[in-house]
Amino acid sequence: xxxxxxWAAHAAVMMIALPExxxxxxxxxxxxxxxxxxxxxxxxQALSKAGIAQSSRGAHGGYRLAKPATGISLWDITAAIxxxxxxxxxxEIRQNGPCGLKRKDCRNPCQIASAFAVAExxxxxSLKTVTLVDLAAQVLQNAxxxxxxxxxxxxxxxxxxxxxxx
Length: 166
Prior knowledge:
Helices cover 52% and strands 7% of the residues. The protein is mainly α. Strands 1-4 form a two-stranded antiparallel sheet.
């Protein structure tokens, strides 16, 4: 899994705290997390394309969540960044080499591919149960009051009113 999933999840959790009609520029989110702006922008564009984030262009542009945080899961974010294709792709190497099976002997799925498919379903199902609201609640529960105050002050200084959305 790429760093982009982590960055996108952190950015999405940050966007929960945005006041109505306000957004954050990719540059601000990149600065906040001390990551490259171009790479953060790429993750935000993927979230926007997936309908998770809403982008607004221009001088008063930025990003905000496109739908309620209760309807956005970690799987939604992962799929937006990594895609929906399985992480494991069986290439049927059991048919290779000096003792390889004949194609006709491979009527049943490869046991290794089957095991990975079961694990991937469990992984995806688990991510689908964790929403941004769940994550935000954990952040609030574990943060020190002064840290929350610092974040609030930062958000107040960095958010901007959004112009027309696209």
